[in-house]
Amino acid sequence: MLIMKRRPGEGIAIGDQIKVRVLHAEDGQLYIGVDAPVALGIDALESQAEDAADVAGPVRDQAVNKAA
User: Fold this and answer.
1) pTM of this prediction?
2) How many domains does the chain divide into?
3) Which span out of 36-45, 46-55, 59-68 was modeled with the highest average pLDDT?
4) For a disulfide at 31, which of 5, 23, 38, 40, Cβ 3.0-4.6 Å?
């Protein structure tokens, strides 16, 4: 894992096709933008973990399912 400091407006490049930029930081939240080819699936790691739990684990609370 590569760890870097970036300020709002700064970013990094991953190869030639992926750019990640820090857009804004507020109240302990970091807003980032990802510029990548449409064919490349981009998803939050937390979403991937939830999807895996939905397939392998017990049924989640109905209120959570309605919000998803």
Assistant:
1) 0.63
2) 1
3) 36-45
4) 23
